[in-house]
Design brief:
51% of the residues lie in helices and 20% in strands. The chain is α+β, with helices and mostly antiparallel strands. Helix 21 links the parallel strand 22 and strand 23. The two termini are 35 Å apart. 39% of the residues are buried.
Length: 671
């Protein structure tokens, strides 16, 4: 069925959802709903969930099993009812068979109408064959031994029970997404004039101010306008420790305010929030099919016709060639038809993908496609960007040499850097946060050199060695420190006051605490780990040495990172690239598997196949474990699905009858 404007459609049999990509200028949602209903399905809208009918289903199943048990008992109990036993069985079986089988027959007819053979089609054939044979035997057109009324009731009861369990399992596999959806508050407390009013989320716009009380979920993505509090972001990042946030910091929908109330300025609402985007990514990934599922789908297309041919062949063989009678032939036919499980093949992969992607979301790992899960197994080379990925991405004070007291040196340095927006200034102020900053005047930036100003009326200089050495003599101890730290690839600034050298400090971008553990864990999985950076060789080698990385690529321009990935691929490696910045986007796109750190830029996250919601490198390793676990589960699911059918279909066909004289009754085959 083709609809103008529809670009693509994907159906996830586990979640029961269809994802349709269409051009709203060429078609409307009402046209999609008509097409769905014409195909024989119910259209529930884009965001409406079907009503739960589990209780009614359980009642039907219970009554069906009870009636079936009574019918089976009547076969072995010596009683004499006022009406003939076959007619009594007919009266007991028919209403229950109709109630249980009606939805099965309806679905089978819809499938046949569209040229599809499904499990419902096969069960319908088994139910109808059993019931018709029983009716014909009741009116003496077939031998009395051909009465299968219990089979005609047990088969739809067992199939309905199987569908009930399947739906329960599907609900469990989609629990992660359900949890995320449940985190969306429905209202917010909006500031209106001098009061706060409970307002539906749909009424909020960017720039509104809302109040979020302790213990409440943040209803939007926003920026803290007033207040300080610890925020529980575990639903977003997978990290259990709350994060301290204050004025100017961003907060996200679904996170929980732990202590003090906050006034939050609305930045994003509705489908634009980070939580909504996560839900979309997870659902889209769950609907994707990896290559192994496409293979299973092709098998299923031929599976059901093959089973029907085998069932007919069994009937023909036993009745016409073996001449064992109609009872054995019909029993073999019905048993083969109902014992096959094509749904096991069809659900083996979607179930594992849905669980895996959902679990990843709980851990702060967003897997954007099922294809990425397959690639995890193939990757043998992991290439890390350095800055912001393996390191903190900001300078910290690593070491210092002072010819005055340490605090006096730090205080003077901080007083000069206080008015600067240079990255090193932040590192100095963080280190000297316990010291009062003294007033400076006339501080000017000398491009490429440093700062010069007045401190208590005295000239003060801070900057590179050359700049400070112009007005102050640097001691031998100071030069030794500068040379030693320079060899480590660290950035060095020196300080002078009144023409006297006071000391020097070195700065570096420090490795994240978990980087070394992540590198070691990846290596333990047989993966080759390398690091690429635009920084100097000295800096790169120092970081790599601390992390245990032997293969280093330094002074690599952003555009050449993608070229490096391409070179590795030509050498036969399957490459995963891990990065966080705009300059990493080409490499993320070029790699076989792009892993974007969530603390980086939005464009980097867009380019990645996997997005880590935290800045922790350990989740790179966790994502590899998750991908490999999901693929292992898929293979086991497919193995058992094939094994079940391969072992039991011959039994249903009567392979043991010539040896042991036993056949598999249809109701047991259907169970």
């Amino acid at each position: 069925m083709n609809i103008d404007g529809v670009k693509a459609a994907q159906v996830n049999p586990v979640t029961g959802k269809a994802f349709v990509t269409f051009n709203d200028e060429k078609t409307a949602e009402k046209h999609l709903s008509l097409a769905v209903e014409k195909a024989g399905f119910s259209y529930l809208g884009s965001d409406i969930l079907a009503k739960d009918e589990q209780d009614y289903t359980l009642v039907k199943i219970g009554l069906g099993v009870a009636v079936g048990a009574i019918l089976m008992a009547l076969m072995f109990v010596d009683i004499h009812p006022p009406i003939p036993m076959p007619i009594l069985s007919f009266l007991l079986a028919t209403p229950m068979m109709v109630i249980l089988s009606a939805p099965i027959f309806e679905y089978a007819l819809v499938s046949l109408k569209h040229g599809r053979l499904t499990m419902e089609t096969m069960y319908s054939m088994g139910i109808i064959t059993s019931f018709v044979a029983s009716v014909l035997a009741t009116v003496n057109l077939l031998p009395g031994e051909m009465i299968f009324y219990e089979t005609a009731v047990f088969l739809p009861a067992f199939l309905t029970f199987g569908k009930y369990l399947e739906n329960r399992a599907k609900k469990g596999t989609t629990e992660a997404v359900s949890k995320l959806v449940s985190l969306r508050p429905k209202t917010a407390t909006k500031k209106v004039d001098d009061s706060f009013v409970e307002t539906p989320l749909g009424m909020l716009v960017s720039g509104d101010l809302i109040l979020v009380k302790p213990g409440a979920s943040v209803p939007v993505d926003g920026k803290i306008s007033r207040g300080f509090s610890h925020i529980d972001e575990s639903m977003l990042t997978g990290e259990s420790m709350p994060v301290k946030k204050g004025e100017g910091d961003k907060v996200f929908q679904g996170t929980t305010v732990m202590q003090s109330p906050l006034i939050v300025e609305v930045l994003k609402t509705g489908e634009d929030t980070t939580l909504s985007q996560i839900i979309k990514i997870v659902e889209k990934a769950q609907a994707n099919k990896p290559d192994v599922q496409r293979l299973a789908d092709r098998v299923v297309v031929y599976f059901i016709p093959s089973i029907l041919i085998l069932a007919l062949a069994s009937f023909v063989f036993w009745f016409f060639f073996a001449k064992v009678g109609l009872l054995i032939a019909v029993t073999a036919f019905v048993s083969v038809v109902v014992i096959a499980r094509p749904c096991a093949l069809g659900l083996a992969t979607p179930a594992a993908v849905t669980v895996g992607v959902g679990r990843g979301a709980e851990l702060g790992i967003l897997i954007k496609s099922a294809r990425a899960l397959e690639v995890f197994e193939d990757v043998d080379f992991v290439l890390f960007d350095k800055t912001g990925t393996l390191t903190e991405g900001r300078p910290v004070l690593a070491d210092m040499y002072a010819e005055v007291e340490r605090d006096a040196f730090l205080q003077t340095l901080a007083s000069m850097e206080h008015s600067s927006d240079h990255p090193l200034a932040g590192a100095v102020l963080a280190e000297a946060s316990h010291l009062p900053v003294e007033y400076t005047e006339g501080v000017e930036t000398v491009p490429g050199m440093g700062l010069e100003g007045k401190l208590k009326g005295n000239t003060c200089r801070v900057g590179n060695t050359e700049f400070v050495a112009k007005t102050a003599s640097i001691s031998h101890e100071g030069m030794d420190f500068i040379e030693r730290e320079g060899k480590k690839g660290r950035t060095i600034i020196s300080l002078s006051l009144k023409g006297k050298y006071l000391g020097s400090a070195s700065f570096s971008d420090m490795p994240k605490k978990e980087s070394k553990i992540a590198v070691r864990a990846l290596k333990s999985q047989g993966l080759r780990v390398s690091m690429v950076t635009g920084d100097s060789w000295e800096s790169a080698k120092r970081i790599a040495g601390e992390l245990g990385i032997e293969d280093v690529h330094a002074r690599v321009l952003p555009k050449n990172k993608a070229a490096l990935v391409s070179t590795l691929q030509k050498e036969g490696f399957k490459v995963a690239f891990v990065g966080d910045g705009i300059n990493d986007v080409p490499a993320l796109a070029q790699a076989d598997l792009g892993i974007a750190m969530g603390g980086g830029t939005d464009i980097a996250a867009e380019a990645g196949d996997v997005v880590l919601m935290t800045n922790s490198p350990k989740n790179v390793f966790v994502s590899f474990l998750l991908g490999k676990k999901v693929m292992s589960r898929i293979r086991w699911n497919l193995f058992w699905a094939f094994a079940y059918n391969a072992m039991l279909i011959p039994v249903a066909a009567g392979v043991f009858y010539p040896i042991f004289g036993i056949t598999l009754r249809p109701e047991f085959a259907g169970a």
